[in-house]
Structure formats: structure tokens, C-alpha cells
Write a structure and sequence with these properties.
single chain, Cytochrome-c3 Hydrogenase, Chain A, domain 2, 2 domains, about 25% helix
Length: about 325
């Protein structure tokens, strides 16, 4: 399977993350899966004329391109011309190249939230007119349009994240390589279900504190960060606390609240990332699969039943009270 990877308007963080994949032989990992990288800005030696010749060969049908991966938002400015981002040596905007190449791809993949929705690049007043491949935040459309379908009949596959977990990218490419990726494998926002059908909340090491609503009050505290510290883990679709980063970490495990980086519009929450907006003392953003009235009632009960150990540890930077040691013949 031939993969062409282009970088548009972004920081390159998804490529940096990809290079941290948990494998001792990065190229061998792809090779054994039947994946051939035609070109990648960080992995390929070809540049200049060699690269431009490759693009021409793809457009002329001389080189087969099975997957077009785009990293970074598409810059349409100023005034729709795309001239804020020209592909060097071609006198053509990157957005034009992407539109042309997408017509020749069996699959088109948006790598990262910038390529999927516009992401950080589209934040603020968006002077570059940045957008995603097939979305502009929650609105379907983007650069390629709502009706775009690749050669496989699929819409753009949105591997959203800021950055993406390396395994999200590798597993998607491997599934495409063996023909095991169908429309049913995409969630309603066209993200791969193997990671998007989970919540960041699943597997969080702070779940005991969440269950008793024992909340952190400052960044160094061990407690749940939903109530006061802006954590959106109970609402955000990703398996960050199950599929750990670098084999051992995640944002919440490092003491940082989940800021919803896999979701459209995460870059403009309307409040500071480390704050939880509330009405009458109740967080606005509550778990997505529970009626708010139920959550408020259960939270009140949970707080009244919080063990002293959990309550004390929630607002501490280390365990103050250890679990009680009992007889080993547990009943």
C-alpha cells in the first residue's frame, strides 16, 4: 500500500508523535505490514525536483497512491486564494495540490485535529482561513466538500488528536493495508472507532476520586479534575488512558486536565483550559451518557459517602492516607 504524506498548516506535532511509535524498527513495522511510504517530510530523503516529479507521476497515473495523508490545516487565505501556503517550486497553493491529489487516492486520511477540523491553526479570528479536509470545526464541508468520497467510497478518515497517538495512525494504516476498514468502522465524525468509541475517562487512574466526587483544587492534587480543573475526560472520545502514550503516560496521569483535543472546536472552549465553567456551582460539561439530574443526585450521594482516605488524598500531591491493610482472606 503506497502512502503519500504531506504537511500543510500546522506544527508537525503529529509526525513528531508518530516517530515515538512503540517499535524497535519503525520502517520494518511498516514494511512487514505491506505499507510503503512514497514520501514523508521527515522520513524521506527525496526533496526538490525528485519530490515534485513524484507528485507529477501520481497525478499522471504512473505511480499508484493508495492513501493520501494530510497533516495540518488547509490554508485557504487570503480571500480563498491559498497563497498563504504555496508548495515551494510549483507556484501553486498547497490546497490546490491536495484537491488534485485527493481525486487519485483510494483513501484520504486527516492526521490530527488540524487536518480534521481546522484545530489550533483555525483558532481566534482565523486570518489564514484555515479549515479541515472535510470539516470546519463541527460543520461538514472543509476544503474537499461534504460530498467528497475517495476511491474506496469512504469520506475523509479523521484521525483526530493534538497530537495523534502514534498507534492511532499506524493501526489505521495497517487496517487499510489489509482491506479491513469499512464505513462501519467510522464514528459519526468519521473517526476510527477503535479509539473513538472509548472515552478518555475509561482507565483514568483518578477514577476512584471521580466516583466519590473528591476533587482536585490545584494542579498538583491527586483528585478528580472534572469539577474544578477543566477536565473533559468524561465527554471526550479517545482511549488515551487505555492505550498509554510512550507505553506509560497520558495527560491526566501527568496531572493535566483533558482539554478535548480529539473533538471539533476544542481550541475555542470559551474559558481557560484549566477552569471548569459552572452554573449555580454545577459544571456545565457533565458526562455525555447520563442525564444531568441523575448526575447531580448521584454526585451529592457520592460526596456524602466519600471515605476519609479519599477525601484527604484528593487535595494532596502525594498519598497522605494509605489503604487499610486487612487480613488476606478477603470476604
Amino acid at each position: 500500500m503506497n502512502v503519500l504524506w504531506l504537511q500543510s498548516g500546522g506544527c508537525g506535532g503529529c509526525s513528531m508523535s508518530l516517530l515515538c511509535a512503540d517499535t524497535t524498527d519503525f520502517h520494518g513495522h511498516f514494511r512487514d505490514a505491506g505499507i510503503h511510504i512514497l514520501w514523508h517530510p521527515s522520513l524521506s530523503l527525496a526533496s526538490g525536483e525528485e519530490f515534485l516529479n513524484l507528485l507529477d507521476q501520481v497525478l499522471n497515473g504512473q505511480v499508484r497512491m493508495d492513501v493520501l495523508c494530510i497533516e495540518g490545516a488547509l490554508l485557504r487565505g487570503p480571500q480563498g486564494t491559498g497563497r498563504f501556503h504555496m508548495l515551494a517550486g510549483t507556484q501553486l497553493p498547497m490546497k490546490d495540490w491536495v484537491q488534485r491529489l485527493a481525486q487519485h487516492a483510494q483513501h484520504v486520511v486527516a492526521v490530527g485535529s488540524c487536518a480534521a477540523w481546522g484545530g489550533i491553526t483555525a483558532g481566534g479570528s482565523n486570518p489564514t482561513e484555515a479549515c479541515g479536509l472535510q470539516y470546519e470545526d463541527e460543520t461538514v464541508g472543509g476544503l474537499l466538500g461534504a460530498n467528497f468520497r475517495s476511491g474506496s467510497g469512504l469520506p475523509v478518515i479523521n484521525i483526530a488528536g493534538c497530537p495523534t497517538h502514534p498507534s492511532w495512525v499506524i493501526d489505521t494504516l495497517m487496517a487499510l493495508a489489509v482491506g479491513k476498514f469499512q464505513a462501519d468502522d467510522l464514528d459519526p465524525l468519521n473517526r476510527p472507532r477503535f479509539y473513538a468509541d472509548q472515552l478518555v475517562h475509561h482507565g483514568c487512574t483518578r477514577n476512584e476520586y471521580y466516583e466519590f466526587k473528591a476533587s482536585a483544587e490545584q494542579p498538583s492534587d491527586l483528585g478528580c479534575m472534572m469539577e474544578h480543573m477543566g477536565c473533559k475526560g468524561t465527554q471526550v472520545h479517545a482511549d488515551c488512558n487505555i492505550r498509554l502514550w510512550n507505553g506509560e503516560g497520558s495527560c491526566t496521569r501527568a496531572g493535566y486536565a483533558c482539554i478535548a483535543c480529539t473533538e471539533p472546536g476544542f481550541q475555542e472552549p470559551g474559558h481557560a483550559f484549566h477552569e471548569t465553567p459552572k452554573i449555580a456551582g454545577i459544571p456545565i460539561g457533565l458526562p455525555t451518557d447520563m442525564p444531568k439530574a441523575w448526575f447531580v443526585a448521584l454526585a451529592s450521594l457520592s460526596k456524602s459517602a466519600t471515605p476519609k482516605r479519599v477525601r484527604a488524598n484528593a487535595t494532596a500531591s502525594h498519598l497522605l492516607v494509605k489503604p487499610v491493610v486487612r487480613k488476606t482472606r478477603l470476604k
